[in-house]
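Now read this:
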Amino acid sequence: MKPNKVFLIIVTIFILTLFSVACSKETVTTAPVDNPVATQESIEPTQETSAATSEPTGVPEDVPIVPDAYELEVANQLNLEYKVNLPIKDVVEFYQQEFPNYGWDVINNPDSVVGSMAQMSRSNAEGDRLIFSIQYNPVGEFAINKIFITRVP
């Protein structure tokens, strides 16, 4: 064979090997290296800091939140999500009792509780609508509550 053909075959094999290694699904992990790094000492939070982080901000005044709720997320005062360590029936009972106190009345759709899920919808005198979804996680024994509010302009 001519030297050009041998060189071309070697280059082709090299390129194919390179592509097969680059496109393989295996990941290579390296062992962590112990590098001592100077760290700052942790500072305990003051009363002001811990109180400021525990209070929910942005929750509309006309929407009740179950006591002991955690991981509260308020997107834009129209979408709320949080978790609570209660069975689904207790969460549903809480909202069925509290909605009228906040001006939310039952509309055409009845409350739906099936297994580990519940759906509730309410309306107020201004015409605002509230859709409420509850999902119970039996493994973690908590309920995820999602509230969607539609305000009349």
Summary: The two ends are 83 Å apart (CA to CA). The beta strands are 70-74, 79-84, 105-106, 112-114, 117-123, 129-137, 142-150. The first strand starts at residue 70 and ends at 74.
